[in-house]
Amino acid sequence: MIGIIDYGMGNLRSVQKAFEHEGAAATILTRSDEVMAVDRLILPGVGAFADGMENLRQRSWIEPIRGFLATGRPFLGICLGLQLLFDGSQEDAASPDQPVPGLAILPGQVIRFHEATGAPDRPRIKVPHMGWNTIAWQRDDPLFAGLAQGSAVYFVHSYYAQPDASATQTITSAVAEYPQAEPFCASVQRDNIWATQFHPEKSQAVGLKMLANFARL
User: Fold this and answer.
1) What is the mean pLDDT of residues 197-205?
2) Is 91 tagged catalytic?
């Protein structure tokens, strides 16, 4: 059974339906004491980083998530669910050097796309980064099994995770470019943790294949 955490930050039913489409049983968890009863855990999310962390605290999800991770069972973060795994975020921060604290499970910070590119021959970019974009995986990852390099997935975000330099190669599993030739972290993987900045549940056949792969981990 796959458990999907309900902490008030996302369209949980769309994630549940995507798994069901692939023949995987998924349930929405409304109480933190339900975590240990599932085989795989999903932390989805849409919205602001600070609100996400506050909701996790108020609904007593933080320690159960840590406890689940310690069991070695597969965990998947989606969009905001990826960002919350990191040390902190610039979103809603008092200043860049005072980030909003995250779960601190993965080393790094969540930073904002800058509209100005800093190069006179390149146009300003639109923020949020919204729509289809291709990804390039950096290493073998069972989440991408059976998919072609350069597959397109669906993004909606203004911020993205920037793993610490010392951990980038061991954490980042795929990158995307926005704008062209400026790569950012599109997904991460470490031990039993997988997380995507994009939305697999909105990425049609490619995303459904990833969710099916996760269900078989």
Assistant:
1) 98
2) no
Whether 185 is a known active-site residue: answer no
HSE toward the beta carbon, residue 85, CA cutoff 13 A: 32
What are the pLDDT digits (tens) for 15-42? 999 999 999 999 999 999 999 999 999 9
Domains of the chain, start order: 2-215 (3.40.50.880)
- DSSP, residue by residue, 18-51: HHHHTT--EEEE-SGGGGGG-SEEEE---S-HHH
Among 45, 50, 63, 49, residue whose Cα is nearest residue 6: 45
Per annotation, catalytic residue among 34, 79, 91, 185: 79
Return mean pLDDT, the chain. 94
5 beta partners = 29
Structure tokens that stand for 7 in this block: 């902490």
Active site residue 114: no
Q: Which residue has the tokens 């240990």?
A: 36
Q: Which residue in 91, 129, 157, 201 is the catalytic one?
A: 201
The residues with which 146 forms a beta bridge, in sequence order, are none
